């Protein structure tokens, strides 16, 4: 249900593939467990500098929660499933390295939330994105109410969530929902291209830059600058910083020690 591939020089780009094509990658309990396990493995891998989340289905990134499975769950079973779902979406959100979602086809409900859990979303022109949960009597519960508002602002997020509308890639881009739109079927290629650019940089710098951004996002400016300073110090006295300066002076490509 989740597969992994490595790309680029030194295999520093990990591709995390949503791979339940028979259900258009609907997130079942088993798939949520697999996603949580895969992201935990990636989080512990210091050789990975960027993760790209893709799909094995050419018409769907992920259509959200498996409502057929949910329909058969008792209230008690739904309560038991909740921590599993949270660990899956949280696993993507908490990856310490930069992440990119490559969205072609449908990214709805939990599928949109997997994408929102990534740092950058690249969408193909034929993509359809939305958080339609209120239309079936629930709310976005994979981080959507929090992540979308932080990404595009309260009013725009309110429109997306309260109307349960579905948006084209172009309209999602205009809202700030996605960062880049490419020709249909090219989202994965573009995401891997961006990931290669990212992975050429210092792994220590990448992780600390992401940490500073994430931890400072909801803090006041003074606190955020203190967070940034702590992350700067963790980077400035690293082997990566020493190698970066030395490589610049010697006009060569850095060989990052990653520590």
UniProtKB/TrEMBL annotation:
GO molecular function: enoyl-CoA hydratase activity
Domain of life: Bacteria
Protein EC: 4.2.1.17
Entry keyword Lyase: yes
One of the GO biological process terms: fatty acid beta-oxidation
InterPro entries: ClpP/crotonase-like_dom_sf, Enoyl-CoA_hyd/isom_CS, Enoyl-CoA_hydra/iso, Enoyl-CoA_hydra_C
Reaction equations catalysed: a 4-saturated-(3S)-3-hydroxyacyl-CoA = a (3E)-enoyl-CoA + H2O; a (3S)-3-hydroxyacyl-CoA = a (2E)-enoyl-CoA + H2O
Keywords: Lipid metabolism, Lyase
UniProt-listed CDD domains: crotonase-like
Keyword set includes Lipid metabolism: yes
SUPFAM superfamilies hit by this protein: ClpP/crotonase
UniProt record similarity statement: Belongs to the enoyl-CoA hydratase/isomerase family.
Protein name: enoyl-CoA hydratase
Organism in which the protein naturally occurs: Metallococcus carri
The organism's taxonomic lineage, starting at the top: Bacteria, Bacillati, Actinomycetota, Actinomycetes, Micrococcales
């Amino acid at each position: 249900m989740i597969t992994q591939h490595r790309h680029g020089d030194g295999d520093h780009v990990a591709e995390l593939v949503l791979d339940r094509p028979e259900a258009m990658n609907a997130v079942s309990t088993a798939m949520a467990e697999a996603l949580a396990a895969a992201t935990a493995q990636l989080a512990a891998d210091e050789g990975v500098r960027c993760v790209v989340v893709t799909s094995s289905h050419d018409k769907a990134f992920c259509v959200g929660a498996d409502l057929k499975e949910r329909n058969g769950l008792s209230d008690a079973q739904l309560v038991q499933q909740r921590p599993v779902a949270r660990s899956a979406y949280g696993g993507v959100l908490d990856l310490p390295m930069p992440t990119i979602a490559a969205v072609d086809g449908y990214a709805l409900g939990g599928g949109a939330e997997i994408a929102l859990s990534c740092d950058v979303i690249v969408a193909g022109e034929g993509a359809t994105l939305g958080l339609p949960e209120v239309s079936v009597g629930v709310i976005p519960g994979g981080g959507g109410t929090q992540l979308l508002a932080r990404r595009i602002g309260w009013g725009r997020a309110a429109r997306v969530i309260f109307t349960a509308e579905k948006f084209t890639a172009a309209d999602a881009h205009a809202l700030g929902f996605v960062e880049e739109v490419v020709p249909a079927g090219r989202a994965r290629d573009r995401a891997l291209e961006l990931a290669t650019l990212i992975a050429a940089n210092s792994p220590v710098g990448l992780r600390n830059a992401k940490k500073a951004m994430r931890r400072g996002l909801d803090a006041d400016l003074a606190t955020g600058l203190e967070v940034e300073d702590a992350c700067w110090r963790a980077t400035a006295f690293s082997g990566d910083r020493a190698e970066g300066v030395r490589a610049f002076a010697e006009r060569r490509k850095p060989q990052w020690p990653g520590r």
